[in-house]
Design the sequence.
């Protein structure tokens, strides 16, 4: 028998067009798909129901946020029946979370002031994040390395975009990663951490004076 001319590889039983398959794979691979990728975004919207159907077969939900121009996947969970868990996205570590909180705070402030594309310098990020880190997080050089690693990850995920060396544009994706409720929760946690740190420093100072 002759090979099916529509096959992309031997034994191919897929029914999606090659470009739609690529969009589906990119949605599965990446944390987010941005409208900045115009060709992929247009294909996603054109074939949204079909892509959703394929994702639903894997117990995944497709979320398309037209306002922010971003699409992302979510793991379907249910108390009524057992759902095999496919998504196991690595959680953000402490330094990455601190960076995210600062980025989200700056984005919120600048957006409220009418800035359509808030930007931030690495010096600003380091100054703020370092103020929350302690000796337990290692030397200053090690802490700075962790901050830069956090920025690299967020850049890869599309939360920020390094336009020039050390200067980043903050994407609206930061609002998806950290909702207003989660931001408030983390800010409260940071205030508590700062208060505890100040209390320990005061106690150590008093003990040293004895």
Sequence:
């Amino acid at each position: 028998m002759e090979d099916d001319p529509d096959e992309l590889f031997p034994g191919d039983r897929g029914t999606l067009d090659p470009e739609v398959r690529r969009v589906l794979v990119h949605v599965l691979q990446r944390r987010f798909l941005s409208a900045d990728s115009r060709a992929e975004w247009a294909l996603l919207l054109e074939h949204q129901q079909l892509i959703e159907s394929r994702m639903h077969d894997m117990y995944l939900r497709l979320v398309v946020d037209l306002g922010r121009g971003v699409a992302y996947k979510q793991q379907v969970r249910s108390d009524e029946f057992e759902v095999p868990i496919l998504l196991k996205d690595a959680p953000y570590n402490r330094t990455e979370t601190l960076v995210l909180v600062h980025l989200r705070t700056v984005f919120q402030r600048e957006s409220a002031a009418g800035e359509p594309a808030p930007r931030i310098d690495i010096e600003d990020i380091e100054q703020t994040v370092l103020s929350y880190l302690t000796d337990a997080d290692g030397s200053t050089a090690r802490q700075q390395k962790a901050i830069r690693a956090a920025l690299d990850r967020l850049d890869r995920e599309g939360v920020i975009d390094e336009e020039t060396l050390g200067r980043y544009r903050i994407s609206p994706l930061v609002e998806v990663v950290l909702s207003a409720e989660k931001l408030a929760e983390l800010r409260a946690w940071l205030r508590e951490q700062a208060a505890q740190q100040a209390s320990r420093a005061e106690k150590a100072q008093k003990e040293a004076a004895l």
